[in-house]
Amino acid sequence: IVELKKKAISIAQKKHKIFSRDFLTIAHTINEKFDVVTMWDVIEHIKDCHKMLRNVHKILNKNGLFFFQTPNAFSLAARIIHKKCNVFDGIAHVNLFNHKNISLLAKKNSFKIVSVKSVISEIPIINNYLNYDDPYFGHDCKKNILDIISEEKLHKNFLGYKIQVIFKKI
Predict the structure, then answer these.
(1) Residues 55 and 23 sit within 8 Å (Cβ to Cβ)
(2) Which pairing describes strands 60-71 and 34-40: parallel, antiparallel, or unpaired?
């Protein structure tokens, strides 16, 4: 596990081997290979994601998998509420991804796409905005948008707030 926060390190090291260095340097400092590497809401924060992906590729075993979750720049929430959407956190999100540019990312970095899935509908956030409330502090809890768009339809069209991706090393 790669972790930089001291409190999280102290908890995680009880059951796991912890690397407490920046991930961009780890591939050059360890001799281990892994079957799976995961990153939950990290890739959008890394300035040189191609360098990071080369490092992931280097530490994966043959046919190893790389799973990551990232905000979806093509989400319905992003398209409707624009700059008010958390996808566009300009300070922290230096890369924006969607189900279309993921394939370019995979190809450029010697990965094959195994899966791309839309998750987290943000239907309540969109409804709050459409009802002139603050998107993130309103009180809507409906399961569809204007009785037209269901959560199932939203995810089928890759319009969820986040995408979960699995790459396979080739």
Answers:
(1) yes
(2) parallel
61, 36 Cβ separation under 8 angstroms: no
Amino acid symbol at 147: D
* Strand residues in the chain grouped as ranges (E): 34-40, 60-71, 111-119, 144-145, 149-150, 162-169
Question: Is 83 in a helix, a strand, or coil?
Answer: helix
pTM: 0.87
135 with 85: CB under 8 angstroms? yes
Tens digit of each residue's pLDDT (9 = 90 or more) over 27-63: 777 788 999 999 999 899 988 999 999 999 999 999 9
**DSSP of 72-110:** BTT-HHHHHHGGGSGGG-TTT----B-TTHHHHHHHHTT
